[in-house]
Amino acid sequence: MARAGITADRLVAAAAELADEAGFEQVTLSALARRFGVKDASLYSHVRNLGDLRTRLALYAGGELIDRVAAAVAGRAGRDALTAFADAYRAYALEHPGRYAATQIRIDQSLIADSPALRRTAEITYGMLRAYGLAEPDLTDAVRLLRSTFHGYCVLESAGGFGAGRAVDASWEKGVEALHRALEHWPREARG
Length: 192
Description:
Elements: H1 8-22, H2 29-36, H3 50-73, H4 78-95, H5 97-102, H6 109-112, H7 116-130, H8 138-158, H9 168-184
Helix pairs in contact: 1-3, 3-4, 3-7, 4-8, 4-9, 7-8, 8-9
């Protein structure tokens, strides 16, 4: 009876909730089967295996994250867009730690081209950076700088890794301003 209500979408949504409650590493087929009151084997008609479930969760969470970022940056450019992007990213990472962790897994390259969320992430991120006059390969380098800075800050913050007396928000704002200045004065690669 409980089985009839399970769909792949409901399974992924339940995985997202579990990830935020218990941590991404605690998302297992057994844990989800217990939530739905079914045996593990019942879930295999909806997902191939744990890797498939976690990939679906990563895409789901990535879609949520980019939706939040897109809403924040709409109609903005330069420093305003960067600040809105950074703040939306940080808020999502802190509000949904398990889902955010899912967005960091490596996804099979063959799935990336088929993912509207991942394409949209690239479009919005690269679009924001083009306002700084960047083109390839500088765009890729700038994306890597932003991602590693935002990710590192969020992971450290969520783990309580900032013990100094200065307010964490003040440091975040100063860091985003420093990124803005770096992007304004980006060391552009010579084009041949």
